[in-house]
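Predict structure. Chain length: 369.
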Amino acid sequence: MEHDPTMTVAKLPLDSVHRSLGARMGQFGDWEVPLYYTSILDEHAAVRQKAGVFDISHMGEFEVQGAGATAFLDAILPRPISPMTFGQALYSPLLNDQGGLVDDIIVYRRQAEHYLLIVNAGNIAKDFAHIFGLKELLAPSLGLHDISAQWALLAVQGPLSAAILEKALGDSFEDLPYYHFRERQDGIVSRTGYTGEDGFEIMVKTAEVKALWNRLFEAGRSQGLQPVGFGARDTLRLEAGMPLYGHDLNDETTPFESHIGWAVKLAKGEFVGRRALISLEESGRRKKLVGFEMTERGIPRQGQEIRKTGEPVGVVTSGSFSPTLKKNIGMAFVSDLGIQEGDAVDVMVRDNAVSARVVKLPFYRRNKK
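Prediction complete.
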């Protein structure tokens, strides 16, 4: 996260709050964000054991509304949209004509022909241009609006998150199913997250996010609620085997190669990228995403080479020390499709071959009640 002085860096709506809490700030894409407040290890443990709050207001939000919205989204996304119920959220790849990943997004169905799309911060302009071009081709009269600047997003994650949210908002969310949301007068609360723990994401108007932040800590401080930075956000999602766009997902890689093929339903009928995916599946995948853990000392990092019996077979996409498992772990794209769980590989760490073992994803799975 090195600073590029030629870039215009955007600030989160709560930038002054993060700084007042002593956050170590750094650059994530085009945004200046809190990396940690106390330490990555401490904040990671807080989410696994109690609860943490993340400021993820850098994420983008698009509104798709009007007659034909359902049919349009069904035509451009590889998961069936029409069966979605009101109040349901759906994780979905967003594909180009070649079957590559433009982004991975979450679709909220608010009403029969009214949807909200949550997109990754670094892809807001790219995603909007992509979807707008498809809209002009398929449904020119449909309403499509980038409302990212109007909304802020906080994530409350961890085993105590439901209790803290009830105290903060005066509303119980215990019965809210996973990947569903509830509309409130002051915003939207969804049971979603990116940590592998139970948790919620709360969307409010940008002008109201500071008041929400304060309410959450008034309700949760006595239960161990902590602010959590992007450092722990990365280690938490990696342990849970959740891919990150720009690391484990990109425009040149298909969902089947990226371990999210489960989110593609080829049998649903035509959608953008379907024919390319079928062709690629018939001709054979070019690579696959695997998990691995180091069996010798060394922390894997993005871009490091993976070798098997001395021959280059892939590249690390994500890697870190796992605070929960007390191991060094990572994910990598490998071109040798025969590599499987238990196989020995080497990771080139500072030009040294460090032993690792391929393991099943995810690395960590929470105990559900």
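Summary: The CA atoms of residues 165 and 216 lie 7 Å apart.
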